Amino acid sequence: MRPVWKGAISFGLVSIPVVLYSATEDRRPKFKQLRQSDRSPIRYKRVAEADGREVAWSEIVRGYEVDRGAYVVFTDSELSAAGMGKKGLPLIEVIRFVEGTEIDPVYYKSSYYLKPEKTGLRAYRILLEALRAAGRVGVARFSMRGKEHLSTLRFHEESLLLETMFWPDEIRDIPAPEEHEDAEIRPEEVEMAKLLIETMSGPFVGDDYKDKTRENIEEAARLKVEGKEVVSVDAATEPGEVVDLLAALKASVEATRMAAEGHDPSPAQRAVS
Fold first, then answer.
1. Could you tell me if 153 and 160 are in contact, meaning their C-beta atoms sit under 8 angstroms apart?
2. Which pLDDT belongs to residue 271?
3. β-strand partners of 255
4. What number of CA atoms fall less than 13 Å from residue 1's CA on the CB side?
5. Lower CB density within 10 Å: C or N end of the chain?
6. CA-to-CA distance for 144 and 84, rounded, in angstroms?
């Protein structure tokens, strides 16, 4: 695993040298466009919209759109003066410590593991244990790949975890409700839905969840390499219109209970669950 950033955590007068590693990877199936006749990969060129001519990298400048189709051009030095791609000691600057529950999960973007350099191991362990004991997360800012990020610093098992966040003005407002969304609900329906939630509740175990589509594509690709026939996967049954919501909730509760007891629910029960 290669580091994506090196620098230091800074809080108060303490500085902890650290290395940043991606905590996640995108494993969704990736497809490349090919020419049908000979399977030659397709490449895309940088062309100008005005005349369709290919543009060399040396001719490309960076423009900021101030109005539809209207741009102002920035030089590298102007962007650097504005703080973009700024140089200097790379720091994860902790601004404040807050309760983790105060931050809405909609803010979170990407996760990274923070590992200490040898000279910062002791301070790293102290910060990790202090965060664990206090039940707090640090709100920090740092720059990576020419961009400044808002982030949080939290303990995760025996490691510090950095999570980049959207800035507050990047979070969109909740869409205004439509007229039809003001639907009347009955108390017994809410109680039955609560019972269904309770029946389906349990601890979160990450290994319980698999990307079935990716597994199906990987298996189909293996069969194609071996020259075997690819058998189609049955699509999930489309749910029909639910006329009696309360009856559907009751049937869902019963189907969930039967599944938990090791019984296979009937097709009708599966259709409403």
1. yes
2. 42
3. none
4. 14
5. N
6. 10
Look at strands 91-99 and 108-116 and give their pairing: unpaired
Instruction: Give every residue of the chain whose pLDDT is below 70, as ranges.
Output: 85-89, 179-182, 231, 233-243, 263-273
For residue 198, CA distances in Å to 1, 203, 254, 260 come to: 40, 12, 12, 13
Instruction: Write the burial class of residue 270 (CB in 10 Å: 0-12 exposed, 13-18 middle, 19+ buried).
Output: middle
Cα distances (angstroms) measured from residue 178 to each of 171, 172, 185, 189: 21, 17, 16, 22
**Sign for the pseudo-dihedral over CA of 197, 198, 199, 204:** positive
pLDDT score at 239: 55
Distances from the Cα of 166 to the Cαs of 119, 152, 229, in angstroms? Answer: 32, 11, 46
Cβ-based neighbour number of residue 18 at 10 Å: 24
Length of the chain: 273
Give the amino acid at 92: I
* CA 55 from centroid of its chain's CA atoms: 34
d(CA 45, CA 84): 27
Residue 193 confidence (pLDDT): 87
